[in-house]
């Protein structure tokens, strides 16, 4: 990725910018399920616990204001966003959050809205295929997400990165590059 010509970045919110790991572990435990850090990744969590419990966790994470406004940012996220803004990399946030106002409130609480994200570069969609349609419409050529299933659905995006902080998907092969940190992602963009 040595040139920014025609490079437009797409960023996922949950699991990439915002870290839900501890909340997932806590919520799963409250429902009677032991989940380790590497098992808290969304695509894996679906396979570790019953669907009803998974849905209850998702509802708490994204719709319960107390929980939804509590997660921290992933280490290095703010600094990386500062780099992207300073270097004038064009970027967009595309999230499948079902409750956009609560997501915006979290971004405000974390002091990312309107400094890095605003009505002009933030989009909320319903399905994985909708992420692809929005990415295509925005001309996104590089996308970072924490779910292999989402990256697989982004057929219009030529350069994809899997944000896998806890090595949840070690050994999984896909048409994406794995990064374990924001520093690793920025290094890949610079390289």
Structural topology:
Blueprint: E1 9-11, H1 21-30, H2 42-48, H3 51-63, H4 65-68, H5 77-86, E2 91-95, H6 100-109, E3 122-124, H7 128-138, E4 142-145, H8 148-153, E5 159-163, E6 177-179, H9 182-190
Parallel strand pairs: 1-2, 1-4, 2-3, 4-5, 5-6
Helix pairs in contact: 1-3
Short note summarizing the structure:
The protein is α/β, with parallel strands linked by helices and 191 residues long. The chain has helices at residues 21-30, 42-48, 51-63, 65-68, 77-86, 100-109, 128-138, 148-153, 182-190, and strands spanning 9-11, 91-95, 122-124, 142-145, 159-163, 177-179.
Mean pLDDT: 94
List SSEs in N-to-C order. EHHHHHEHEHEHEEH
Beta-strand residue fraction: 5-15%
- As for the CATH topology of the largest domain, it is Rossmann fold
Given this structure, which CATH class of the largest domain is correct?
Alpha Beta
Strand order of the largest sheet: 3-2-1-4-5-6
Number of strands: 6
**Residue runs with pLDDT of under 50 for 5 or more positions:** none
Structural class: alpha/beta
The description of the largest β-sheet is: 6 strands, parallel
CATH architecture assignment name of the largest domain: 3-Layer(aba) Sandwich
Cα-atom Rg, whole angstroms?
A: 16 Å
Shape: globular
Report the helical percentage. 40-55%
Tell me the number of helical segments per DSSP (H or I, 4 or more residues long).
Answer: 9
Oligomer: single chain
Kindly give the count of domains.
2
CATH superfamily of the largest domain: HAD superfamily/HAD-like
